[in-house]
Structures are given as C-alpha cells and as structure tokens.
Specification:
mainly alpha; about 70 residues
C-alpha cells in the first residue's frame, strides 16, 4: 500500500472514532485504494460499490439481520 493511502486511512480512522459510519467510510477508502489497482470494467464496478454512501449501505442492509 502506498504511504499516502496508509496515512489517509489512519487519519480517517482517527478522526472518525469508532462509530459504525466512521468505520464504514474507512473501509470504503481502503476499497477505493484496491480499485485503483484494477483496470477496465472491473475498476468501474469496484469504484461504484466503493462510492456507495453509508445511508445507501444502511438502507440496503437494514432488513438483513431481522430476516434471520
């Protein structure tokens, strides 16, 4: 991992505390750094998923735990 990406992830983690939303955005930043290593359609799909807001993620997954 590049130093700039590592620093960005560390700063995002430190600034976000340990909230669910903060952890989500930290994970998304990490995913975007992985997407940057991809090419073509794979990269486009990866970046689309990694750019999803916490609100979108939460809405899509809010019913999954109650369905178990």
């Amino acid at each position: 991992m590049h130093i700039r990406q590592t620093i960005t992830l560390l700063l995002a983690t430190a600034l976000s505390g340990c909230s669910s939303q903060g952890l989500y955005y930290t994970g998304q930043a990490w995913r975007r750094s992985l997407c940057d290593e991809m090419r073509g359609d794979d990269r486009v799909r990866c970046l689309s998923e990694a750019s999803k807001s916490y609100g979108e993620y939460h809405r899509e997954n809010s019913g999954t735990s109650s369905q178990k």
